[in-house]
């Protein structure tokens, strides 16, 4: 089962359809329509946040889903599928791939990622586990824990990598990741143009995730406004 899912996303675009409560498009229905549009336009998978969005999307789109739950715990910086509770909840939706923060940061409730992975391997042996990483140290940690997929999701989004962009220096960081593992790598995080998506595939990624550049009109609008504004100033 795992192999067939990997093959179905190989070489393709996975569209992240997410909108948090504070975002204009926050709605499971809207996210399901975004996913439908993505599928009709050639996406090979969907990345989705929250049980309600995952279920709404999977009701209308039959594509492999990377499921997460974003939840903020006051005592931790880890917010993507942070504890065993959230990982179990996403696994229970039937998502083919479950992604979680795999940084070396401390998790809520004193939980540790090794125990989470071990428990989930027993409870959901067929679920593919994707490590959302932000550094080479995270990648090495995720490899040691036995994740199935490495994602660059958090590069540029952690305190240590704030301001970094995976495309810098012709994806120098991504090349480092690809060089230290034979695991499938999914490029994710600020892949905001077709050219960048093409480049990461040329470099050898299993697949590429793009989110805001496709499904966050507020981000897209800001880029247009900034570009036009640069002319008038
Ligand atoms: C940092 C964080 O919370 N990233 C989230 C991970 O699920 C999503 O909000 C991103 O949209 C997704 O990773 C795709 O990245 P981009 O939107 O840059 O194409």
Automatic annotation (TrEMBL):
It is an enzyme of class 5 (isomerase). Pathway: Amino-sugar metabolism; N-acetylneuraminate degradation; D-fructose 6-phosphate from N-acetylneuraminate: step 3/5. It comes from the Bacteria. It catalyses: an N-acyl-D-glucosamine 6-phosphate = an N-acyl-D-mannosamine 6-phosphate. The keyword Metal-binding does not apply. Pfam families: NanE. Keywords: Carbohydrate metabolism, Isomerase. Its EC number is 5.1.3.9. The keyword Isomerase applies. InterPro entries: Aldolase_TIM, NanE, RibuloseP-bd_barrel. Belongs to the NanE family. Converts N-acetylmannosamine-6-phosphate (ManNAc-6-P) to N-acetylglucosamine-6-phosphate (GlcNAc-6-P). HAMAP family: ManNAc6P_epimer. This is Putative N-acetylmannosamine-6-phosphate 2-epimerase. It comes from Vagococcus proximus.
């Amino acid at each position: 089962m795992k192999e067939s899912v990997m093959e179905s996303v190989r070489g393709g675009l996975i569209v992240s359809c997410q909108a948090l409560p504070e975002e204009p498009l926050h709605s499971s229905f809207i996210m399901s329509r975004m996913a439908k549009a993505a599928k009709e336009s050639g996406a090979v998978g969907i990345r989705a946040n929250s049980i309600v969005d995952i279920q709404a999307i999977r009701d209308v789109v039959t594509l492999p889903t990377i499921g997460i739950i974003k939840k903020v715990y006051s005592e931790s910086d880890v917010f993507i599928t942070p504890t065993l509770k959230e990982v179990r909840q996403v696994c229970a939706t039937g998502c083919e791939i479950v992604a979680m923060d795999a940084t070396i940061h401390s998790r809520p409730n004193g939980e540790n990622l090794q125990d989470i992975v071990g428990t989930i391997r027993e409870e959901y042996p067929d679920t593919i586990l994707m490590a959302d990483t932000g550094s080479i140290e995270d990648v090495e940690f995720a490899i040691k824990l036995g994740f199935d997929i490495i994602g660059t999701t958090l590069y540029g989004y952690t305190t240590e990598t704030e301001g970094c962009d995976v495309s810098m220096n012709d994806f120098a960081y991504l090349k480092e990741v690809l060089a230290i593992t034979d695991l499938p790598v999914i490029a994710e995080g600020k892949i905001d143009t077709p050219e960048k998506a093409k480049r990461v595939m040329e470099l050898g990624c299993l697949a590429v995730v793009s989110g805001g550049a496709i499904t966050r009109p507020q981000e897209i609008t800001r880029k247009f406004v900034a570009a036009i504004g640069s002319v008038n100033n």
